[in-house]
TrEMBL record, chain A:
SUPFAM superfamilies: Roadblock/LC7 domain. Residues 15-86 form the Roadblock/LAMTOR2 domain. InterPro entries: Roadblock/LAMTOR2_dom. It comes from the Bacteria. Gene3D superfamilies: Dynein light chain 2a, cytoplasmic (3.30.450.30). This is Roadblock/LC7 domain-containing protein.
TrEMBL record, chain B:
Coiled coil: none annotated. It comes from Marinicella sediminis. It comes from the Bacteria. This is ATP/GTP-binding protein. Gene3D superfamilies: P-loop containing nucleotide triphosphate hydrolases. PANTHER family: ATP/GTP-BINDING PROTEIN-RELATED, GLIDING MOTILITY PROTEIN MGLA.
Length: 129, 173
């Protein structure tokens, strides 16, 4: 039986704590799945547009400045962190992003998000968002 | 002096192409595979950047932005400190020319700012209907902006835009 995105979010939140949002969007910025926790307010379309823009710019920086392949992008603020990784879902280039508040552990976030990104390449999630 | 020029307009109007035609360097582009049918394979989701040397004193940074309004965060970034703007409009596509009014407001285009409108995808000749509609929009905004039919793939055609922007600034100053 296929998982819901909400179940994936809750599983991740149990490990990382203080996860506010998890989003899967196509590389060109169309949201596929989003789960926003509780009172955290965010526009799904805006989150998808931001992640696709930043990931595309990160790709360009990795390729043209570092002459290497892109892996992930991290934004840190005084309140938390936004982490983006590329993935593929149902044969489409996609971006998986996570927003965490509190005092997030970058190493843990990176580990679990990369693992989830790998899982998504072969998964078929429940149609229920 | 380094000046900043923005290329704006609807999806598929030729913003990435015109920057590639004009730039003296390999452009930075952020094209990705489109997941919906937009009439082409790739679409810009971040920023396009090219660099054009006009003369010993002046260089231009050429900035292209995504066409979709959802990417207004990129528009906001590019909008700061603009010297000039080129709006590209797809010939005979109502969505493309209807957006001109929104873009004029969003980018705060005013009489003192060099601005040109280029009609693209007019291989079979420019549709006068497109020109007429654009002129009506410009009249509503009380703007007198040159409107050309261009082929962004051709450097000479793209240069016409840049030469006009430079001439417009000289006319103002």
């Amino acid at each position: 039986m296929s998982q819901t995105f909400e179940a994936i979010f809750k599983n991740l939140d149990a490990k990382l704590k203080n996860v506010r949002a998890l989003n899967l969007t196509t590389a060109d910025g169309f949201p596929l799945y989003s789960y926003i926790n509780g009172s955290f307010k965010i526009e799904e379309d805006k989150l998808s547009a931001v992640t696709s823009s930043l990931t595309a710019l990160s790709h360009a920086a990795a390729r043209q400045i570092m002459n290497d392949d892109y892996e992930s992008t991290c934004i840190e603020t005084s309140m938390g962190m936004m982490f983006m990784v590329q993935t593929r879902y149902q044969d489409q280039d996609c971006i998986l992003s996570l927003i965490s508040y509190g005092q997030p552990n970058l190493g843990q976030i990176r580990y679990y998000l990369l693992r989830l990104a790998k899982y998504l390449t072969t998964a078929k999630l429940s149609a229920e968002k | 002096m380094h000046k900043k020029v923005a290329f704006i307009g609807s999806v598929g109007s030729g913003k990435t192409t015109i920057i590639e035609s004009l730039s003296n360097i390999h452009t930075i582009n952020t094209d990705v595979q489109s997941s919906v049918d937009i009439g082409k394979e790739l679409t810009t989701v971040g920023i396009d950047y090219g660099h054009l040397v006009v003369n010993q004193d002046t260089t231009l940074g050429l900035y292209g932005v995504p066409g979709q309004q959802q990417y207004s965060l990129v528009w906001d970034f590019v909008k700061k400190g603009l010297w000039a703007i080129c709006i590209l409009v797809k010939n005979n596509e109502s969505d493309s020319w209807q957006e001109v009014s929104y873009l004029i407001d969003y980018f705060e285009i005013h009489k003192g700012m060099p601005c040109v409108i280029g009609i693209t995808h007019a291989d079979q000749g420019c549709d006068q209907h497109t020109v007429h509609n654009i002129n009506q929009i410009l009249a509503k905004h009380q703007l007198n902006i040159p409107v050309y039919t261009i082929d962004p793939r051709q450097r000479d055609s793209a240069n016409l835009i840049m030469q006009t922007l430079i001439a417009l600034e000289e006319a103002v100053t």
